[in-house]
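beta-N-acetylhexosaminidase: structure tokens wanted.
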Amino acid sequence: MNKPLFIIFYFLLSLPLYSQAKLDTLLPVRGFCIGAPQPKDVDRFIKFINEELAPRKVNTLILRVDFNYQYESHPELRDSIALSKKEVKKLVAACRKNSINIIPQINLLGHQSWANTTHNLLKKYPEFDETPHVQMPAKYQWPNPDGLYCKSYCPLHPTVHNVVFDIVDEMCDVFGSNAFHAGMDEVFYLGDDKCPRCAGRDKAELFAGEVRTIRDHLAQKNRKLWIWGDRLLDGKTTGLGMWEASYNNTYRAIDLIPKDVMICDWHYERPDQTPVLFAMKGLQVITCPWRMPKFAVLQTQDMVRFRASSTPEMKDRYQGMMQTVWSSAGQFLDEYYGQATNSNANGNTASNCFRTMYNEITQLGK
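Answer:
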């Protein structure tokens, strides 16, 4: 082969690498977050990894596992139908084949219940409950006199971390992960006046203390902590409200937590530009849309612009984008592949948001 033809041939072979390098520069993290599939949906989800995530150059997959795993350290915490180690290894293998970093999530601190159902940790260890005096209703409604959204465990209970860290370690080991997502969003019950350990304590210090405790535990095995960012934002001053931000003063914890915690900053109804706040506080941040495609496009453009127009010190704190899905994996796959539709959504669905956001990322990467 003569030299000019060789150069052209080499260039054509290298195009995917150049595209990959440009994407890595534009958005180092290109993520997807969803509930871990039920055993019956594992093979279908692996097909989605191979045929949908990988071609779009998704490089990070967060699976919200919680109690959907057959824990050996605490079998009492398993869901009645749960993933086996073999099934998890299949998911891990699919991700490794496609150069996708897989990160498990277990909700820590908050989200220990939903509606009128107590989740497994507090069901099996009721002594960990921050608000045992708040009884779960037969029929849940919001608002309610108890201010019950989701239960929390008490971060100062002397044995709660013995149990929690057992399953965190087991989950990280089976996933072979270098990071762990602890959730920690929408924590309304914290520092309750009736808690014998937490009453009267500063809620920001309690929240920051739990972040630090989890972070320090993970750091012993060189694992990085990821959390949702809403509790670190001032809901009143910003007008973001009590769901996307804090009304109980935990937002001051933004100045108290370790700077190596990865913040997943979610805003679903507006493209709020709060990544700037996190970055200016020295924290790495990822923007997380859900079901509004037009806002996901704006958020993606913002993240690229933030990186391009920042100082060298700030640039790498803007880490990228992550599509979030808040239905089960099975429901999402049904929606994605057209086996179920929502005629009232007007295109505002997680599957359409995913496609639209990654189309924008692909265009920006050209």
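The first strand starts at residue 29 and ends at 35. Strands lie at 29-35, 60-64, 101-108, 113-114, 117-118, 179-183, 224-228, 262-266, 284-288, 318-324.

Cheers.
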